[in-house]
Write a structure and sequence with these properties.
- By secondary structure, this protein is an alpha+beta fold.
- It has a single domain, classed as Inorganic pyrophosphatase (Inorganic Pyrophosphatase), CATH 3.90.80.10.
- The protein contains 3 helices and 10 strands; from the N terminus they run ββββαβββββαβα.
- The chain has helices at residues 79-82, 154-166, 185-203, and strands at 29-36, 42-46, 53-58, 68-71, 90-91, 97-101, 111-125, 128-129, 132-137, 177-184.
- Strands 1-4-6-9-7 form a 5-stranded mixed beta barrel. A two-stranded antiparallel sheet has the order 2-3.
- Strand 7 (111-125) and strand 8 (128-129) form a beta hairpin.
- It is globular and about 60 Å long.
- It starts with 28 loop residues before the first strand and ends with a helix.
- The model has no long low-confidence stretch (mean pLDDT 93).
Length: 205
């Protein structure tokens, strides 16, 4: 590499799951890679091999994600995450999902933002732990006094719960998704720390 390039220059695009830092302030403040916005009627998801954003499927119901939605880099949901969920048989073997609340509309996907963790949803999908961390955009003045899940309106929690219970639902089928608990900030920290341990066990530190 040329000596004229800055130290942070990447000759090749870093993988959003493995090539981006989680944050030196984790689990309180974490980086989030956004795959979906509240304006998307198509479900996008990062291809695990290439790191590029792909179309997963059109949304199956009329409901849209109430918040920005993506994942926390360098996390993995396996045995340590599943151990925190009494109704899970195993982790879903994906990066830990995160929902980020903002005041101003953000319409772009494939962005990285810093988020301040306030809680989460203890979700189980077909027997697998599939927690959804809830956070607010860091330095968003509107949400500056929001420090825990109890500080957000109950209607927003209801929308998040409804979205995830129904977002994979097919006509004529019963949902295989359950939200067993809506937990606060401290419990969310434990889930993030568990997912970091699972990542280190799977991929190395």
């Amino acid at each position: 590499m040329s000596k004229n390039f800055p130290d942070t220059f990447y000759r090749w695009r870093p993988h959003p799951w493995h090539g981006i830092e989680i944050s030196s302030q984790a689990p309180k403040i974490v980086n989030a890679y956004i795959e979906l916005t509240p304006f998307d009627s198509v479900k996008y998801e990062v291809d695990k091999k290439t790191g590029y954003l792909c179309v997963d499927r059109p949304q199956r119901t009329s409901s849209l994600s109430p918040t920005l939605y993506g994942f926390i880099p360098r996390t993995y949901c396996d045995a340590n995450v599943a151990a925190l969920s009494k109704n899970s048989l195993k982790g879903d073997k994906d990066p830990l999902d995160i929902c980020v609340i903002t005041e101003r509309p953000i319409t772009h996907v494939e962005i990285i933002l810093k988020s301040r963790v306030i809680g989460g949803l203890r979700m189980v999908d077909n027997g697998e732990a599939d927690d959804k961390i809830i956070a607010v955009l860091n330095n968003d003045a509107f949400w500056n006094d929001c420090n825990d899940i109890t500080d957000i309106p109950s209607i927003l929690k209801d929308r998040l719960e409804h979205y995830f219970v129904t977002y994979k639902l097919k006509p004529g089928e019963h949902s295989k998704v359950s939200i067993d608990e809506i937990y606060g900030r401290e419990a969310a920290y434990k889930v993030i720390e568990a997912s970091m341990k699972d990542y280190d066990l799977m991929y190395g530190g």
